[in-house]
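Can anyone check this?
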Amino acid sequence: MGLEDGHGLAHLGDLARQLGGWGRLVSAPAHVFRSLPAPPPDPVAGPTEAIRRALDPGGVMNPGRLHEGVL
């Protein structure tokens, strides 16, 4: 499977989801990002936001540094 294009990466993502996992593409050429389907919601965003709100209810510590939309 070639990972230099979106087809191989999409297949790899499908395999990960079938096994209950997930992955995040951090860096790739623009044409690869454009060829991939929109990612599913980040599975750790909800728990991360809950922890962040509990520890920093005012949102003053590094706002926006964990995940987009989390304080």
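Reply from J.R.: I decoded it. Helices lie at 6-18, 30-35, 45-55.
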